[in-house]
Amino acid sequence: MTHRGPFFGWLFSLLLTVFIWVPLPSAADQEGTLVIALDTLGGQTMDPILEGRAPHAHYQAPVFDALVGFNFEKGGIGPGVAERWELADDGQSWTFYLQKGLKWHNGDSLTAHDVKFSLERTMTKESLASRASALRRNVKKIEVIDDHTVQIFTNGVQVHFPASMSRAVFQEGQLMPKKYIEKVGVKEFRKNPVGSGPWKFVRSVQGDRIEYEAVDHPHWRGKPNFKKLVILLVPEESTRVAMVRTGEAAIASISPESLQEVEVAKLKVVSVPSTMQAVYQFWGAYRSEFAKSPIADKRVREALSLAIDRQSIIDHVMYGQASWPMPFATFGYSSDIDTARWQAWGKKALRYDPARAKQLLSEAGYPNGFDLNFANTALPGTPYMTQIGVAVADFWNKIGVKVKIKHYEWGAFRLLYRGDQKKLAGHTSMFRTAGRPVAAARYYGGFHSKGGHHLFGSKTDCPQRCQDFDNLHLSLVAEQDDAKRAQKTDKMLEMVADSWMAVPIIEGKGYWAVNPKKVGHFKPIPGRHEFGDVFERMPLPGQKAWP
């Protein structure tokens, strides 16, 4: 059967418009160098299987295309190297139909053999890609039907599999050239990578920069207007802002703290909507040793949410550059959900109501509050999370909860939630969800007994709610009927929302300072903070004026 779910209903009409967002310049029209200043380059490796962190979409995306692309206007997925895809009638495989005429930078044709090679290479034990293990778990085999058709057989029904092949969700769909790697070897490929994207790799200076040159022919993602692209690693934010102000860089990543400085300097601020949620969550509350802990009581967990003035955090911590959240890990472009319903839920359930919060605490037996251990941390790229955490702790203190806050560098915090979580169980902490169109994957990581956080239970200690979630999630990701899948998704959201175990605080954005004298007006992709798939869509300063 041909599968046309919420992901795919707009697919063919999008194909008619996605490639004409900006006029295609001739080679003679390409001019100048687009300079980007970033706070991190992650592993700074040009081999897609050696990077498992978000910065890959800044610096690998210019060179490498992905099997599935973006919906550039709404966020979420759209056509990529594959112009369409179909789910088999038995639900056990997906067939991807590739665009014809695509070339690697060395002139070789891009074919289905490259797709098979790329996915199998990403699944090897050598791969450090963040979802390599999931890919190994989900894929049974890959068969090339012809040069432009590849069939991927999955272990069971995997209705969200195409989304995992897009950088809108993960990086594992990035494609690599089979013939070139087999000819020159992996070591040479890592030194001189060849891709099929709109930018050719020139050189990488570790800890400093990566340089690119634009292709001089039409490209399905958009032919670059700039002739060269340079991405600089500049860890200090004040230096990045100064570089944009002086014109040394055209664009720089910033945090909300720099917004006022950027505006005073008469630079432009580009805010990318729906890139993340700042959340707090309770660790190990299901365990028997915490049965009498305040955090084991649902009323207490709800009271803590009602005590938070989210609008104050949006206005004062985020300088107005944030939004009211929907349920955990859901956004306006999320698939399989009733967006209007859950936006209304967020406004009501996540309201500021300290009187009700105190009433719930009293009903739970804590009229004078209790002691709460709170681990405050910030994930890479969102340093303002710690400021949000401080504000949240202050609101909790106001209703009598005695918050013992401890600040953790991200690398140290990551170690706490691995394994048995002994040092974190019984605590609450800051955390973050990424902007992705498919909520089910993030819910697996947070609440499934085999997920990394297992907030409802673990493989060896899975209470009834944990078992119910595991069964529901298994049913949801295998549901081929769009309407039934939407119903199950809503039920999954209800189960987590009603537990108050992981609670959204605000919906954040990606923030960028832009010098309008160096680059013309452009639109970001909703939910995608990184600009690796936007550089080729950026006009020269004289091509499109800023509003």
Briefly summarize what is shown:
This protein is an alpha+beta fold and 547 residues long. The chain is built from 17 helices and 16 strands.
Report on the architecture of this protein.
This protein has 547 residues and is of the alpha+beta class. It contains 17 helices and 16 strands. The protein folds into 2 domains: 11-267 and 515-537, D-Maltodextrin-Binding Protein, domain 2 (3-Layer(aba) Sandwich); 275-508, Dipeptide-binding Protein, Domain 3 (Dipeptide-binding Protein, domain 3), CATH 3.10.105. The chain has a 10-stranded mixed β-sheet with strand order 8-9-10-1-11-16-12-15-13-14, sandwiched between helices. β4 (82-87) and β5 form a beta hairpin. The two termini are 46 Å apart. The relative contact order is 0.16.
Number of domains: 2
The whole-number mean of residue pLDDT values reads 93
Q: Order of strands across the widest beta sheet?
A: 8-9-10-1-11-16-12-15-13-14
- Largest sheet at a glance? 10 strands, mixed
Break the fold down into its secondary structure elements and pairings:
Blueprint: H1 11-17, E1 33-38, H2 56-59, E2 69-70, E3 77-78, E4 82-87, E5 93-98, H3 112-122, H4 132-138, E6 139-146, E7 149-154, H5 178-184, H6 186-191, E8 199-205, E9 209-214, E10 228-233, H7 237-246, E11 251-254, H8 259-264, E12 268-282, H9 298-306, H10 310-317, H11 339-349, H12 354-363, E13 371-376, H13 385-398, E14 402-407, H14 410-416, E15 428-434, H15 439-447, H16 464-477, H17 482-499, E16 502-514
Helix pairs in contact: 9-12, 15-16, 16-17
